[in-house]
Amino acid sequence: MTPPVVEIDKLWSVFHEAGRDVVIHQDLNLRIEAGELVSIVGGSGSGKTVLLRQMLGLAVPARGSVKVLGEAASSMGREGAASRVGMLFQHGALFSAFSVLDNIAFALRELKTLPNDLILDVAMVKLRMVGLDPTAAHKMPADLSGGMVKRAALARALIMDPPLLLLDEPTAGLDPGSADEFCALLQSLHQELGLTVVMVTHDLDTLLELSTRIAVVADRHIVASGSAAEVMVQPHLFIKEFFLGERGRRASALLDAPLRPPASLFADTKT
Amino acid sequence: MPDVVPTLTLQTTPDGAPCVVLGGCWSAARLAESATWSHISQGLADVATQGAVTWDLRAISRLDHTGAQLLWNTWGHQQPAQLQWRPGQRVMLERVARFTAPAVKPARRTAWQFFLRLGEQLWLLWDHLVALLALLGQLLLDVMALLRAPQRGPWRDVSGHLFRIGARALPVTALVGFTIGVVLAYLMSRQLRLFGADTFIVNILGLSIIRELGPMLAAILIAGRSGSAITAQIGVMRVTEELDAMRVMGIAQGYRLVLPRAIAMAIAMPLISIWTTLAALLGGMLAADVVLGVTPAYFFATLPRAVAISNLWLALGKSVVFGLLIALIGCHYGLRVKPNTESLGQGTTASVVTAITVVLLVDAVFAVVFKNVGL
Q: Dihedral angle at the C-alpha atoms of B111, B116, B119, B121, nearest 10 degrees?
């Protein structure tokens, strides 16, 4: 059996704020196997993005360990990281000084060995793969629309075909049409390239459409993890509000198997 | 997934035809190792001279887009006649084939466009001048509005900027002023001693520092320190749409952003200028004592006779103008920043360079206009 792609063991994330410690995660455990498409959901400020940053080695665990592809996450940022993990930041984080094509080709070019025409061809293929028009290649990031920025950033994250792709709010700020297109793109990439995908999202449609597993972060750890149907019947308060609120019902009505709200809805909230 | 070095071997099939057997991991990271790349690129170049060969990809453990692109480009964008591959590799190569497009070259600039750009630059200069003039006019209107209703003025902002522009700049201006004073006194004392005119050190130091060097040093330091900060502050507000938010709330940008900074600069600049002058005089006085034996007591006694008081008023007046110019130029470039980070960097640089240049030019104008005052 292949080892898990992400293995988080008893993770504590602590921030120092105004002279006191704020605990974001407490004894958080999470395993993500190869080929999964895991969505992390949770309320605002529950530490979803911090969890992604822990996997990237951008945040440092106060206690516990984070292992990505069998290595400690703190060593993720060393040379050649682009071939191990790709990250789509919420606002794209495209380098504003480079054109779109140069942004996509950046990691490959930094290797300093491959010839430039090959690099440009590879970058061009990635550009078209994410559904951008070749004429966008020489535009500057400031001239792109929100959807195009996300697509270009996705192409940049995928340039070295990393086995693990992290997405922070991939559909936030996109209109419904672009969001649907982006979802379809992510799904086809996940299937065709055999990627392991971890994404943070608030968008219920994206969540229910794409995820093979949903992990819910609340109360400083993972309170539920499993398929949409499994997670939704959990009695946790946040899960009820998130999935069984007005928006959640609308989104889950689109699922093939309609879910019945748990019978114990009111009995549990009393405690 | 075994992550091994990509290999390329040229073999001969049992029926005598040449066959290229590829193996290992054909991924971007492995191909880009310099030893591997020289081996593989040499190998592919050798194969190209062979004519028709059979390609055997089945031993490749992992083929990514970069590897597939390399093969596709080597094959001249068509599938070779003799090819043995696995279904997964076929999918990858077909995707690369589907999306490979001739790179769109950025349009080259023609001589005519170059000419047009030249004109554009001229218009840009004109645009800057008009915008600066408009900013100055708006500032005058805002000052009048302030005089009419002083209780509604942005006084908290003014005091905040006074602290940041003025009080925070005291250490650095004192240090620079003191050092320049010492250096000047040392250099001049050697020349003066040749003529036995030791005591004239007071006249030279006093006049040059009070009239020119104090205000100039202070203005250049403040332009670098606070001019850039003003541009960056306002520029970041543009990038984060705060300027738009202010506008939507109906809050006048000139009144809330430009006016407090201009007032704070106009007050802080002459004070900083005097402070720098004092530090430079102190440095010069100590150095004169050490090198020439001109005592501080003599220095103090002689200074008022050597330098007319009008020089001090001139220096103060200049400093107010410098301060206003630095604030206006900082705000001007800050408001022109476009909502992206690169424009922010360019704006900040342009602001500092322009502010220092303008300060030097205006100082020259002052020198010419007031050549009969205090000399």
A: -90
- Which residues 80-119 of B have a C-beta within 8 angstroms of A? 91, 95-96, 99-101, 103-104, 106
Interface predicted TM-score of the whole assembly (ipTM), two decimals: 0.77
Q: Which CATH architecture has domain A35-63+78-226?
A: 3-Layer(aba) Sandwich (3.40)
CA atoms within 13 A on the CB side of B161: 27
Q: Do A129 and B99 touch (CB under 8 A)?
A: yes
Q: What is the pLDDT along chain A (271 residues), one digit of tens a residue?
A: 577 888 888 888 888 877 788 888 888 888 898 888 999 988 888 888 888 888 888 888 888 888 888 888 888 777 778 888 889 998 888 888 889 999 999 988 888 888 888 899 999 998 988 888 888 888 888 888 888 898 899 899 989 888 899 998 888 877 788 788 888 888 888 887 788 999 998 888 888 888 889 998 888 888 888 888 888 888 888 888 887 777 777 766 666 554 455 444 444 444 3
Task: Tell me if A17 sits within 8 A of A28, measured CB to CB.
Answer: no
Closest-CA distance of chain B to residue A36, Å:
17
User: CA–CA separation, A55 vs B108, rounded Å?
Assistant: 44
- Is A261 part of the contact surface with chain B (CB cutoff 8 Å)? no
State the best of A111, A127, A154 to mutate against chain B, taking most chain B CBs within 10 Å: A111
Give how far A164 is from chain B: nearest CA, Å: 14
Instruction: Please write down the long-range contacts of A252-258, taking CB distance under 8 Å and 24 or more positions apart.
Output: A252/A204, A252/A208, A252/A228, A254/A205, A254/A208, A255/A208, A255/A228, A257/A229
Domain boundary assignment for chain A:
35-63+78-226
Within an 8 Å CB–CB cutoff, is residue A157 touching chain B?
no
Nearest to B69 among A121, A128, A140 (CB): A121
Write down all domains in chain B, each with its CATH number in brackets. 7-99 (3.30.750), 121-369 (no CATH)
Check CB contact of A135 with chain B, cutoff 8 Å: yes
